[in-house]
Write a structure and sequence with these properties.
By secondary structure, this protein is α/β, with parallel strands linked by helices. 41% of the residues lie in helices and 12% in strands.
Length: 209
Amino acid sequence: MQSTNVVWHHATVSREEREVLNSHKSAILWFTGLSGAGKSTLSHAVESRLHEMKCHTFVIDGDNVRHGLCGDLGFAAADRTENIRRVGEVAKLFVEAGVITLTAFISPFRSDRDRVRQMVGANEFFEIYCKADLAVCEQRDVKGMYRKARSGEIAEFTGISSPYEAPEAPELVVETGSKPLEACVEEVIDLLMRQGIIKLDLTKSVSIA
């Protein structure tokens, strides 16, 4: 449903002015992958690195939004789609605020991820595929979610009883199933530098292991 009798109010301070103040551009880093692939771990590690560089950032985490913003949604296909739509709208607002926004969601359907990409302008949405074999994800599963899914205790679990549609042309594929975390972080930082989101001089004062 669309809201009625509403108008869009333009900010007095523009996004471009915020970016100048921040000394970096804003963008959405969309981390996607199976449960246990390392999306949350990598996104928070990247944020920590960017914070050291004095960048303005925020991580929108899949579990966290279901405590509030998306607490009324389940895990059926329609609910997953609505979950990602809401997150996309919030991420778009953060981009307008001049923030480098990192999201960590399974977001299993390509159409949902593409919809978020279309919400923002060109070169503002970076799809980062956290690639890890299903066996590796199951080994990392400290909560036992995969075990419950295989036994039928959890319905529509991505990778077991519900499909995961891997990105066909992501901006970055990170082998989170086999590479050390620090190496994965470097790949994301390199992407941001190549795309002009952050500047080279921001990295000079940060030690790189």
